[in-house]
Design goal:
CATH architecture: Alpha-Beta Complex
Strand order of the largest sheet: 1-2-3
Radius of gyration: 15 Å
Largest sheet: 3 strands, antiparallel
CATH class: Alpha Beta
Oligomer: single chain
Shape: globular
Structural class: alpha+beta
Distance between the termini: 12 Å
Order of helices and strands: HEEEHHHHH
Number of helices: 6
CATH topology: Sufe protein. Chain: A
Strand content: 15-25%
Number of domains: 1
Length: 156
């Protein structure tokens, strides 16, 4: 990817890091997941509330670096009020969601490219948890297929 532009990309990251959106927990969430980044060990929890197939509320907690926290914040903002089908039924939901983050942040240093996949992974697992709880087996099969190769998105 290249070096970070301290004027633009760094400022965008710092905005989300210093003033993260949607931090916290949701009591009795419709979907929840915790992901431990396999490269660096950062933890990200995602909680979601669903109404009429839309993410009406999303919260996150993260114990991680600036890029992980900024990514979770930006992702939570991007998916709030989205229809689950808009997220899950795209050709490649993982690439689409990571692409949203990369568009928001621009070039990240190569050594930080492993950070954005963790919040995306947690969100998709939280949606999977919701599908399990609501017995939506058709949707569960689709998201499980998406999640089956997510490890390749964690880059060193």
């Amino acid at each position: 990817m290249g070096e970070i532009n301290m004027d633009d990309e760094y400022q965008k990251l710092m905005k989300y890091f210093k003033n993260p959106k949607n931090v916290g927990i949701i009591n009795n969430p419709d979907g929840y997941a915790r992901v431990k980044n396999p490269i660096c060990g950062d933890l990200t929890d995602i909680y979601i509330k669903i109404e009429k197939n839309r993410i009406k509320q999303v919260k996150f907690k993260s114990f991680g670096c600036l890029v992980t926290i900024a990514s979770a914040s930006a992702l939570s903002k991007a998916v709030k009020d989205k229809n689950l089908d808009e997220i899950v039924e795209t050709i490649n939901p993982v690439e689409t969601l990571i692409g949203l983050l990369m568009k928001e942040f621009g070039n990240l240093p190569r050594e930080k490219l492993h950070c954005p996949p963790a919040p995306v992974h947690a969100l998709l697992l939280a949606i999977s948890d919701y599908y399990k709880k609501s017995n939506r087996l058709d949707k569960l099969k689709k998201i499980d297929n998406v999640l089956s190769d997510i490890e390749k998105y964690y880059k060193k």
